[in-house]
Amino acid sequence: MKHTLIYTFLGILPPIISFVLLPVFLKYLTINEYAILSLSNAFFAIFSIILNLKVDQAFRHIYFFEPDNTPKQLALFRNLFNFQVIIFCFWILVMYLCGDQLFHFVFKNNFSFFPYTFIMMLSLFVSMLNGFYFLYLQNKFEAKKYSLYFIVNILLTPILQILCIKIFKLGFLWFLLSSLCANLLMFLLIIFNNRLLFKIEFSKPVIKEALQFSLPFIPFLILYNLENQLDRFFIEKFLTLEDLVRYSVLLSISSTIFILFNSLDNAIRPELFSILSKKTEGFELLVQEKMDFYLLIGLMVLSFLSAFGINIHWFLNHPKYNGISLYFPIVALVFLPLILLRFLGLILMYENKIKKINYFAVGKIVLMAILFYFLVPQLKINGALMTIGISNLLNVCVFYAIIQAKILPGREIYFYVSLFVLLNSVMLFLNKSTLAPTIAILQFGFFILIFLIKYQKELRKQWQPYKII
User: What pTM was computed for the model?
Assistant: First the structure.
């Protein structure tokens, strides 16, 4: 539990830093520069799946197949690390020769792959190698060492970026180069402090075992990420560059909030999987308790998103982006099904039924493309959000149909969800009224109060060991 809490806390730090620094970056980056960042990130979100053939996912699992076989674990790390280095060199050559043509084929705007996106790609490669070493430390439960490297890593990049654009006024190119330099410095620090760890090893059986594990996940991950990035491609195709940037800022804020759920997933997964594996009498009630806890946290997070978004002018203070406050009530409603979907996804992973949704995912991507094609030109950003909401609802229905443990939330949660839907629907019609910000803040306070009342005993138990005797 100690390591879980440490990794959960550290997992929260990157989105918080991104959230705090967003106004700074928006102030010093032009619309064109932020658009390049947004489009490049959308491009790499899908491209990164095949960059290393997801051998990092294989490393997460195969490492524990023989927990006492240290030589095999070390050989696995060295082989997969060297394998990734070779693959990245291959991709650098390919993208150097064909990157510009591919970028112009995917996007209609006259952005060049060089130099900006190429630098971002190099930075991504180095950060993935650093991340693979961090994963090695996690698997070895070296929490102190992991924490030190991780904190240095997440602080170094924004510090250099702020120095470049705010202090030295060096422009967008140096903003990107600072990220690359930060990752390279981190990489050199890791290599220098672990010279005996990094050795050139290539074992065909080891790499083959990893690929046999990782390759089946790639179709699902490609479809999942394609679905998540589809909206930006249609926004970019049918709307103006300003709309694309506003939409990107809107989703950047929303996505930052939802990254927090990755930490919650990591914290709740061991206990949930233990309950599902034992299936003792009354296990359904235990799973329902976990589900209620998860959903109530989700309602708190979405309530915060509504309250923050509607009052975003106090935080962002940028006239070009203050208009996005009108979209946050519908964003909260659109992402509401995603909370239940994430919990059902944990059960789906435990039951190892990921492959069953691949065919459904293909059909849904086609449906979403059709909806985006017709709704985005007509309703603009609202059309994209409506399509995402329909997709989330369909996913919930399909996930629930596939899983074996068909468990629903408790009655209280139904009431809280209904209240949340009602309040945010009211705020949609009051988006130009001074009443909407007040309702949003009261809603957030209400769900915090409900959570504290419902789980006060559990919270006291967690704090009890830290009391000074």
Answer: 0.70
